[in-house]
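[step 3/7] fold_predict: job queued, chain A
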Amino acid sequence: MAVARVTEIISGSSKSFQDAIDDGIDRANKTLKNVEGAWIKDQSIILDNGKIKEYRVVMKVTFILDD
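[step 4/7] structure written:
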């Protein structure tokens, strides 16, 4: 029987929400072992003079703990 843990990650990108998600998952895989999945909890944008400066996502990442 596996035991999993969930951690929250905030990631940003100047390109798109998808790029922010990809960057967050890539970073999670470098730090955490056994990443199994993720879901997007929230999306937001940061504006600068009315223009989109950054796309941000808050995601919950699930990973399996070692035995």
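[step 5/7] annotate
The two ends are 10 Å apart (CA to CA).
The mean pLDDT is 96.
exit 0
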